[in-house]
Write a structure and sequence with these properties.
Blueprint: H1 3-11, E1 18-22, H2 26-32, H3 37-58, E2 63-70, H4 78-101, E3 104-109, H5 117-129, E4 136-144, H6 146-162, H7 171-175, E5 188-191, E6 210-213, H8 223-234
Parallel strand pairs: 1-2, 1-5, 2-4, 3-4, 5-6
Bound molecules: 3-methylbut-3-enyl trihydrogen diphosphate (2 copies) and magnesium ion (MG).
Length: about 240
Amino acid sequence: MSLSELLSAVRARPLPQHVAVIMDGNGRWAKARGLPRTEGHRQGALVVERLTRFVGEERLFPYLTVFAFSTENWGRPKEELEFLFALLDGFIRDKLGELAARGVRLRVLGAVDRLPASLRRTLAAAVEETKGNDALHLSVALNFGGRWEIVEGVKRAMAMAREGKATALSEDAFRKLLPTAELPDPDLIIRSGGEQRLSNFFLWGAAYAELYFTPTLWPDFDEEALLRAIHDFQGRKRNFGQVTA
Ligand code: IPE
Ligand code: IPE
Ligand code: MG
């Protein structure tokens, strides 16, 4: 199927609302070319730009979340960390105008307080500038962990209890306390790079997500790869624990 045939096929069936992506394989992509790992990250950032434009222009789905840095990624060499943060800072600065013009609303999910101050400022300004947009909700998971998220929810619940504002805790009530409360649960979680694990990405929200794993390394992931993932998703039967046959 050509890209346009794939696009028509995907459009003919119910689309996911929220697609979340674990962008893995940058380092291996670079290594295979005899390049430093950082070149893989640079290429990977271009893929995010391309896909964001594609999803926005085609109005494929309203929520796109990309996992850019996990709470465990701090264990990487200092030079790689510095490169990643500088890359993201530059990316947001360069692309903010275009993102805003295309109606993208940017959110950051994660413990931003540990990030370099300059990056925090860039992110805060971009989040503020785009907060009125709703053509595409682009969330960047940065110093994010599924466990961090749940602990954040618990901390908020405890703070409310201390302030005498405790309400009966239910799944719905707890969900509203999570840092991802504004987003619907992901319908589809895509992981590039061949590994078949969540690596501490969404945990609470992943309860009924469809998981799609592809060996394609992130820098090689493109519009067609995204459409193939969605096409695969559309062929699944989501039961949500019920009897549907
Ligand atoms: C994913 O690519 C990007 C980040 C985690 C920041 P990797 O850097 O993990 O690439 P591989 O898995 O080593 O190939
Ligand atoms: C997952 O990739 C995190 C991101 C894509 C940001 P990793 O490369 O960090 O995951 P592991 O270490 O292979 O599980
Ligand atoms: Mg990896």
